[in-house]
Design brief:
single chain; alpha/beta; 11 helices; 16 strands; binds ligand FHN
Length: 445
């Protein structure tokens, strides 16, 4: 009887939050703390994306380009895939080590998969046993452990949460992916699935204190389905008004979304073919990128991007006003690949010297160009020359009539900058060119 009463009270509370939230969501007006967090987010510039799940055990199964998608790419039946959690025992997971690494890399936040498309929850979920605490020999809530450590070391934690689910029986009708997984249910109530997802989100927003936000992915699987977005977003903002919501749906942001992301593309540079919907001027931006070609751990993928390449992408992203969310796929033992650690430490070293020309900035007056990018902070414009090629650089769009001084960022020596009608011309002598990024600071009146 008492149990039943508690259950009822929880349900009523859940309904009340949802209802209140739904009302509040109409004509969404971000709460003051949400607006503050948007500023924080834009100042932060650099975060770690983490794709970690039971799929890491398979390490891509010997194929390039497969990792967290292995269930669908190899058409593994649910009943067989469900054996994976039984082998997942990341005894070497050390959240303190992860978070220290993130700090040394100069990153300010982590976005980790709470659930990917395989439907497995990497945290202590009460609504399903298909989670790390109930279904693995490890039996510990890695998300909770990571959150505690993030709080201790001053790093914000976001959750990547997949709306697409190849495992849940009510994720029906099926979307365009996972068609080959033979034993998926052949009927189901999609509304019940959304209820389940919202309950999991409620857990994520109530079990771990204040979080950075939710990074949604997977709506593209069923673009025409009724995802009840308003309700989900209102639920999240009702529970944590400051939490930032973003969705990788490859469309312009919907009401209730607080940032816009671009997958493996600089904003507007649609090399992937699906990032072609424009760039929002209303909300902060973020681009995510892999260190090799995989999101989850892939044991054969050695196609690592160089430190220089990654820093260049980060700087260009900043030139578009976008954060850089750089991914790692931890190994099944809980450790981060040493190759990734090395890369992150090298980026961190660079940021230690040059971070002042990046953190806290906003996009510059000139869109990124082949030679580099510009960003601004207060009355300073930072010109990041990434590709010098030994020639003068003409930059149109700099308000040269307001130019007070131009110096090199690293040693404060005078830079050779000539004003022109339309902007400036920069001459950088060879001895001043840096191997990664030559930065000139323009101070305006
Ligand atoms: O399918 C996912 C993929 O596994 C990964 O999570 C990336 C990260 O941006 N997003 C999806 C594809 O758009």
């Amino acid at each position: 009887m008492r149990k039943e009463l508690i259950r009822l009270t929880v349900l009523v509370l859940f309904a009340a939050i949802t209802f209140k939230g739904t009302m509040a969501q109409e004509g969404y007006v971000p709460a003051p703390e949400n607006l503050d967090n948007r500023e924080w987010f834009q100042d932060a510039k650099f975060g770690l994306f983490v794709h970690w799940g039971v799929y890491s055990i398979m390490g891509g199964g010997g194929d390039q380009g497969i990792a967290e998608w292995i269930m669908e790419r190899k058409s593994i039946p649910i009943v067989q895939y469900e054996k994976l959690p039984g082998f997942f025992n990341p005894t070497q997971f050390d959240p303190a080590e992860w978070v220290s690494m993130v700090k040394k890399a100069g990153m300010k936040y982590i976005t980790i998969t709470s659930k990917h498309h395989d439907g497995f929850a990497m945290y202590d979920s009460k609504v399903s046993d298909y989670n790390i605490v109930d279904a693995t020999p490890y039996g510990k809530d890695v998300i909770g452990m990571l959150k505690e450590e993030c709080d201790r070391q001053g790093i914000r934690l976001f959750f990547y949460h997949s709306q697409l689910d190849w495992h849940h029986p009510d994720y029906f009708p099926h979307g365009r992916t996972g068609q080959g997984i033979a034993d998926r249910s052949q009927s189901g109530d999609f509304n019940a699935y959304i209820d389940y997802m919202n309950t999991q989100l409620t857990e994520l927003l109530t079990q771990y204190g204040e979080i950075g936000g939710i990074w949604f992915d997977g709506m593209w699987d069923k673009p025409d389905a009724d995802w009840r977005l308003e309700e989900t977003y209102a639920l999240i903002h009702g529970l944590q008004p400051g939490a930032l919501i973003g969705s990788n749906h490859h469309k312009m942001p919907f009401p209730g979304e607080d940032f816009m992301m671009f997958e493996r593309d600089l904003p507007g540079e649609n090399t992937m073919g699906f990032n072609n919907t424009g760039i929002s001027e209303e909300v902060p931006l973020e681009m995510c990128e892999t260190m090799n070609g995989s999101w989850g751990f892939n044991i054969i993928d050695q196609n690592y991007k160089s430190v220089k390449q990654l820093i260049h992408t980060m700087v260009r992203a900043a030139g578009y006003g976008a954060n850089f969310l750089l991914n790692t796929g931890p190994m099944p033992n809980g450790r981060i690949q040493p190759e990734n650690v090395d890369t992150l430490m090298a980026i961190g070293n660079w940021l230690e010297t040059y971070g002042g020309a990046l953190y806290g900035t906003r996009k510059g007056p000139v869109r990124p160009q082949e030679w580099g990018a510009t960003v601004v902070k207060g009355n300073e414009i930072y010109i990041h020359v990434l590709d010098h090629r030994g020639r003068d650089i003409e930059i149109r769009g700099i308000p040269s009539d307001r130019l007070r001084s131009a110096v090199y960022f690293d040693d404060g020596s005078r830079a050779d900058v000539k004003r022109s009608e339309e902007g400036i011309t920069l001459s950088i002598p060879k001895r001043k060119v840096k191997p990664i990024d030559t930065i000139i600071v323009l101070t305006l009146m």
